[in-house]
Amino acid sequence: DDMPLDKAALIGCGVTTGVGAVMNTAQVRPGETVAVLGCGGIGLNAIQGAAIAGAGRVIAIDRLASKLAMATTFGATDVVDASVDDPVQAVRELTGGGVDHSFEAIGLKVTAEAAFAMLGKGGTATLIGMVPIGQRLELEPTALLSGKRIQGSNMGSNRFRIDMPRYVDWYLHGKLKLDELVSATMHLDEINDGFRTLASGEVARQLIVFDQ
Predict the structure, then answer these.
(1) Which residues contact 39 (CB under 8 A, 6 or more apart)?
(2) For a disulfide at 147, which of 18, 122, 177, 198, Cβ 3.0-4.6 Å?
(3) Cα–chain-centroid distance for residue 9?
(4) pLDDT tens-digit readout, 123-169
(5) How many Å apart are CA 36 and CA 187, to the nearest integer?
């Protein structure tokens, strides 16, 4: 009853998908290294999921400085500006060979392939973003011999009866960041402005507020 409904609204997709991909699908363990490609609403939640899971290093990758700044708020220990640096090379240099886990939260062929390429030995790439239907991924097959894997995640492999109460408790106890996800609030008649802002890529989440 004490959970604010406007913050609860954020859990249904963005938090469940991002945090769940880390906790449920990939099962990141304390001390492991993580890279997240894309720092939108889903990616930011994958970042904070990795931080909550105790990842030793969380590398955020994006092309927008504002998104990378948000990523540090959610627990990123390192950031890579993909508009300047090759993300695969940067991640390999930061980790001395590659990460234990990578999470693709954009939905592009090139970033999905990059997520696999930046893995270290025995690493797992988890694809959260939806690569367009009909496109095919190209992977180096010899990389599979070192135990590298690629997998998908559907809405964070959620278990709603378990995960939803847990996320609410985490928020109420200050463990899960939801307030920081809200870039703007608006009324329904402002929704077209919200869509235009969304297209700019500068926001994490926007909320439509209905008057009581």
Answers:
(1) 47, 60, 61, 62, 64, 67, 68, 70, 71, 105
(2) 122
(3) 18
(4) 999 999 999 999 999 998 999 999 999 999 999 999 999 999 999 99
(5) 32
